[in-house]
Amino acid sequence: MEWNRILFNTFIPRTWLAFVESRVPVVQSLDIYSFLPPQQGRSTSGDAAYWCSSLQCVLRLALDRSTTIWPICTSPPYTCITLDRALVASASDQLEEIVTLVKAGVPIVLPPAQIRSIVLELRPSRALNAQAAHEM
Predict the structure, then answer these.
(1) How far is CA 39 from the centre of its chain?
(2) Strand pairing of 70-71 and 80-81?
(3) Which pLDDT score, from 0 to 100, does residue 30 have?
(4) Single pTM value for the model
(5) Which of the 8 DSSP states describes residue 68?
(6) What count of other Cβ atoms lies within 10 Å of the Cβ of residue 40?
(7) HSE-up of residue 72 (Cα within 13 Å, Cβ side)
(8) Residue 29 has pLDDT above 80, yes or no
(9) What is the pLDDT of residues 97-117, one digit of tens each?
(10) What is the spatial distance between Cα 62 and Cα 67, in angstroms, rounded to a whole number?
(11) pLDDT by residue (tens digit) across 48-59?
């Protein structure tokens, strides 16, 4: 049981993140998010109990290591940066405003909703808002 916890909370996230990082130069699109582990439903037993936190473990590791896997919202080709240098937008934010802010030099990323939710749970200060944009 302890081996499974170490495997799923440490070694699999490290390996998965290394894979995602290796895809950034090749993909050059917002599809980089498709290489992250899929969101799993909560399970209390069996193998599924270990897989349910895989996305969160990989994202936590990516944030802790300041990996350069976050594509800025621009037209292709996309530039990836570390999240500590960007703000995280929501699909409900006005795209025109996001593009204007990016053109003004505010790096903004727009991950899928489930990824955004986990990222902002781990780093709430990265949320796109007027004050955060002003401080960039």
Answers:
(1) 12
(2) antiparallel
(3) 63
(4) 0.86
(5) S
(6) 15
(7) 21
(8) no
(9) 999 999 999 999 999 999 999
(10) 5
(11) 666 778 899 999
Residue position matching structure tokens 């209390």 = 44
Q: Give CA–CA dist 87/133, Å, rounded.
A: 8
Residue 19: predicted pLDDT: 95
CB 37 within 8 A of CB 55: yes
Q: Do 39 and 77 form a contact (C-beta atoms < 8 A)?
A: no
* Integer Cα distance of 103 and 39 in angstroms: 32
Nearest by Cα to 126 from 97, 90, 79, 94: 90
The token pair at 99 is: 């593009």
Closest C-alpha to 24, from 83, 84, 63, 80: 80
- Quote the pLDDT of residue 73: 87
pLDDT at 44: 52
Cα 114 from chain centre? 9
Q: Which residues are within 8 A (CB) of 54 and not within 5 positions of it... i.e. 6 or more apart?
A: 8, 12, 13, 16, 37, 40
